[in-house]
Write a structure and sequence with these properties.
alpha/beta; 5 helices; globular; three-stranded mixed beta sheet; single chain; 137 residues
Length: 137
């Protein structure tokens, strides 16, 4: 199976000036664990995740005062839609993250989560071994 078989092709995007509360509401409303951050004034993409929101709140930061731009991950690993799900899972395990932005031809075409991979493997009855040298971070 390939990334294209499991990815969500409808991607939640948010601007860097939105508050944490705005991001949390958008993610909750869409039932997703991540949002792609696009800044028309800056090159490249970022991502925010549930984990980022939890860490911020746990640190006592205000969801109404904190901005997306202050918490996004910008040093990203991107996937291609023709990657195998095993390759994507390995990248996630090695990098210690649970979401990949899927890019094809320089365009965002989807987001793949660890949950998507598990859903595909469970539905397909597939199983695989964790690649040697991969460890949970």
């Amino acid at each position: 199976m390939q990334v294209s078989d499991g990815m969500s092709s409808v991607v939640l995007t948010i601007g860097p000036g939105h508050s944490w509360r705005d991001a949390a509401k958008a993610m909750t409303d869409r039932k997703v664990g991540a949002a792609v951050v696009m800044d028309p004034d800056q090159p490249g993409l970022g991502i925010i995740t549930e984990r980022d929101l939890l860490a911020s709140v746990a640190a006592g930061q205000s969801p109404d005062q904190e901005k997306v731009a202050d918490h996004l991950s910008s040093n990203l690993t991107f996937a291609a839609s023709d990657w195998s799900l095993e390759h994507a899972a390995e990248a996630m395990v090695r990098g210690g993250f649970r979401h990949l932005i899927v890019m094809d031809g320089g365009e965002v075409t989807g987001v793949l989560s660890m949950r998507d991979i598990v859903r595909c493997w469970t539905a397909d009855g597939a199983s695989c071994d964790v690649p040697e040298g991969a460890s949970a971070a």
